[in-house]
């Protein structure tokens, strides 16, 4: 097993933390290269969730009994853990949601619904995941706002020289991804946020692909909102976060109505709590939040800077190996990219390649990756995608390259 | 599900790979009565099927264009070869037989399916049934409307 000479982390030993990596698929050891879709979970996270249900489970913020107090304490501690993790000044800036998609919908519908007017411009980029596109389309259609897009260059980076003509005073909000889920492009978030601020536009950063992969601090980024999911960073599914500036969140009206988010209710009218509880109607995903805090502990134990180095090492190693596969073409930047590699092969359609790879235990993603406009931009119906995480190894990449070469021969 | 050795070879038989690389009846049909656009939104496969009917409503001519995986392209190619010149009743019969072939464990595929029997490997890959059925959903729609244009999807009807 490969060991990164420059790293203090024993990456191969770390694989033992992930029980699922022992699975065999179709008679082969699993090679899980679909972490950009959802990461695997370490035992530390699984244990914490199980322990919560076995010892502390109750509803939060309402019971006067011991378990409810414990559940509430764990839940609110998790909120603080998230705040520390992303460098937020206060835990009140952390809204728990179901995931990135729900976080962005919250901003689009609740913030956008109040502050955007007909004719206002919502600036996005051509590389957005559908989750940072469709909510804005729905909003734009409802209120008569306009959508505008920063184009993507052939090398998979944003055409930043066009920004000055796109980011005008009509732009009220600029929403963009930190790391592209299909190209691996890392966008200059700090610079984009600065430029948006200069024209008075709010910023929304989709951090789904970056949050568990690299150091990230919302105050350094200078964003107004930041959205991410737990399940791509070793936490359970169904938990995510919306970070927002304190004053900004305070100006946003309630979104979902129900229990937990009110201060008093009469038959005719209600008054609402302050953020973040204003945006957490109903019983939240308590176990998910606790699992997210455990995932943060786990990742911080390794260090996000180390994880990023590992991702970059794997990506460059994979790019080298894949360059020798006949007819294989990689999309996206050749350098400064995350551990996500989208590619097409002359010999096999992504769908056929994914089926083929699966027979060898290799989990790739094939298709449009919730990026249909971007696929059209590159003139492909879809791609195959290999995405890595802290438990991925160079040896697995060697096996992937073997399988891709087998596919070339098979489909020839 | 554990797949046995050879499932890939059964799925991608030579005849399938041949038809996917050199699809037959691929092209435009200028005097088509019906054009159906078939869409598999899950993977982006597209089939544009053009059908011309004879006096009795049978399929006088059928052609397609589009792009997609080997399974959808081969299915379309083999299908057009098989259905050309068939009566409406025969087409419906074939459609049902083909659906059985790619979804059930029945190894005794009806002889009438001919070369289409090479698609039987699909039954072990449930995620690929939609690929195989895409052109057939299009021809089913063509029979239903007999003229004009339509769009069909392997997913539920869209809300727009």
List the helices and strands and how they pair.
The complex is a heterodimer of chains A (412) and B (160).
Chain A: H1 11-14, E1 24-25, E2 28-29, E3 31-32, H2 43-55, H3 66-86, E4 94-97, H4 100-115, E5 121-125, H5 134-143, E6 146-150, H6 163-166, E7 171-177, H7 189-198, E8 202-206, H8 218-221, E9 225-229, E10 240-244, H9 246-251, E11 262-265, E12 270-272, H10 286-302, H11 304-323, E13 328-331, E14 340-345, H12 350-358, E15 362-363, E16 365-367, H13 372-377, E17 383-387, H14 394-411
Parallel strand pairs in A: 3-15, 5-6, 5-7, 7-8, 8-9
Antiparallel strand pairs in A: 1-2, 4-10, 9-10, 11-12, 13-14, 14-17, 16-17
Helix pairs in contact in A: 2-10, 3-10, 4-5, 11-14
Chain B: H1 7-11, H2 14-21, E1 34-40, E2 45-53, E3 59-67, H3 70-83, H4 88-103, H5 129-145, E4 148-153
Parallel strand pairs in B: 1-4
Antiparallel strand pairs in B: 1-2, 2-3
Q: What is the first-to-last residue Cα distance of chain B?
A: 37 Å
Low-confidence stretches of chain A: none
In which range does the helix fraction of chain B lie? 25-40%
Radius of gyration of chain A: 22 Å
3D architecture notes:
The complex is a heterodimer of chains A (412) and B (160). Chain A is of the alpha/beta class. Chain A has 2 domains: 11-32 and 304-411, Alpha-Beta Complex (Aspartate Aminotransferase, domain 1); 46-301, Aspartate Aminotransferase, domain 2 (3-Layer(aba) Sandwich), CATH 3.40.640.10. In chain A, 38% of the residues lie in helices and 17% in strands. Chain A has helices at residues 11-14, 43-55, 66-86, 100-115, 134-143, 163-166, 189-198, 218-221, 246-251, 286-302, 304-323, 350-358, 372-377, 394-411; strands at residues 24-25, 28-29, 31-32, 94-97, 121-125, 146-150, 171-177, 202-206, 225-229, 240-244, 262-265, 270-272, 328-331, 340-345, 362-363, 365-367, 383-387. Chain A has a 7-stranded mixed beta sheet, with helices on both faces. In chain A, strand 1 and strand 2 form a beta hairpin. In chain A, helix 4 runs parallel beside helix 5 (134-143). Chain A is globular. The mean pLDDT of chain A is 95. With 160 residues, chain B is of the alpha+beta class. Chain B has one domain (23-153): Sufe protein. Chain: A (Alpha-Beta Complex), CATH 3.90.1010.10. Chain B has 5 helices and 4 strands. Chain B has helices spanning 7-11, 14-21, 70-83, 88-103, 129-145, and strands at residues 34-40, 45-53, 59-67, 148-153. In chain B, strands 3-2-1-4 form a 4-stranded mixed beta sheet, with helices on one face. In chain B, a hairpin with a 5-residue loop joins strand 2 (45-53) and strand 3. In chain B, helix 2 packs across helix 3, helix 3 (70-83) runs parallel beside helix 5 and helix 4 (88-103) packs antiparallel against helix 5 (129-145). The radius of gyration of chain B is 15 Å and the shape is globular. The model of chain B has no long low-confidence stretch (mean pLDDT 89). Chains A and B meet through helix 12 of A and helix 1 of B.
């Amino acid at each position: 097993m490969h060991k990164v000479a420059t790293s203090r982390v024993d990456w191969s030993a770390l694989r033992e933390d992930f029980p699922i990596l022992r699975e065999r698929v179709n008679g082969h050891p699993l090679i899980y290269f679909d972490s950009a879709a959802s990461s695997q979970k370490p035992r530390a996270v699984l244990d914490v969730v199980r322990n919560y249900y076995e010892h502390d489970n109750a509803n939060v913020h309402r019971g006067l009994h011991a378990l409810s107090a414990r559940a509430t304490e764990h839940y609110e501690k998790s909120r603080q853990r998230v705040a520390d993790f992303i460098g937020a000044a206060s835990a009140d800036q952390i809204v728990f949601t179901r995931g990135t998609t729900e976080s962005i919908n919250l901003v689009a519908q609740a913030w956008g619904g109040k502050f955007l007017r007909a004719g206002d411009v919502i600036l996005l980029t051509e590389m957005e995941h559908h989750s940072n596109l469709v909510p804005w389309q729905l909003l734009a259609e409802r209120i008569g706002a306009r959508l505008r897009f920063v184009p993507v260059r052939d090398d998979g980076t944003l055409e930043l020289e066009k920004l000055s003509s796109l980011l005008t005073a009509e732009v009220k909000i600029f929403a963009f991804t930190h790391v592209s889920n299909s190209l691996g492009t890392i966008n200059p978030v700090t610079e984009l946020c600065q430029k948006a601020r200069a024209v008075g536009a709010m910023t929304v950063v989709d951090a789904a692909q970056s949050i568990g992969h690299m150091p990230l601090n919302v105050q350094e980024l200078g964003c107004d909102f930041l959205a991410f999911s737990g399940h791509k960073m070793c936490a359970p599914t169904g938990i995510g976060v919306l970070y927002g500036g304190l004053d900004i969140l305070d100006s946003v009206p309630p979104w979902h109505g129900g229990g937990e988010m009110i201060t008093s209710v009469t038959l005719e009218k209600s008054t609402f709590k302050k953020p973040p509880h204003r945006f957490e109607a109903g019983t939240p995903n308590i176990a998910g939040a606790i699992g997210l805090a455990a995932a943060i502990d786990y990742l911080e134990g390794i260090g996000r800077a180390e994880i990023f180095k590992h991702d970059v090492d794997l990506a460059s190693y994979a790019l080298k190996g894949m360059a020798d596969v006949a007819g294989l073409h990689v999309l996206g930047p050749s350098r400064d990219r995350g551990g996500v590699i989208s590619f097409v092969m002359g010999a096999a359609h992504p769908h056929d390649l994914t089926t083929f790879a699966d027979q060898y235990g290799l989990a790739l993603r094939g298709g449009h990756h919730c990026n249909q406009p971007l696929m059209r931009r590159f003139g492909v119906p879809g791609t195959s995608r290999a995405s890595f995480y802290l438990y991925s190894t160079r040896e697995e990449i060697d096996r992937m390259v073997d399988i891709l070469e087998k596919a070339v021969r098979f489909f020839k | 599900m554990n797949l046995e050795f050879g499932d890939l070879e059964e799925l991608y038989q030579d005849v399938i790979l041949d038809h996917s690389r050199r699809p037959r009846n691929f092209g435009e049909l200028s005097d088509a009565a019906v054009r159906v656009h078939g869409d598999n939104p899950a993977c982006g496969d597209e089939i544009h099927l053009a059908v011309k009917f004879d006096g009795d409503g049978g399929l006088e001519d059928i052609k397609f264009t589009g792009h997609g995986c080997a399974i959808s392209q081969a299915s379309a190619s083999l299908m057009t070869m098989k259905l050309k010149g068939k009566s409406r009743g025969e087409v419906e019969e074939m459609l049902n037989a083909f659906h059985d072939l790619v979804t059930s464990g029945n190894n005794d595929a009806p002889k009438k399916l001919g070369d289409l029997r090479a698609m039987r490997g699909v039954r072990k890959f449930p995620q690929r049934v939609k690929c195989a059925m895409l052109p057939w959903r299009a021809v089913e729609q063509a029979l239903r409307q007999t003229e004009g244009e339509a769009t069909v999807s392997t997913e539920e009807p869209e809300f727009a």
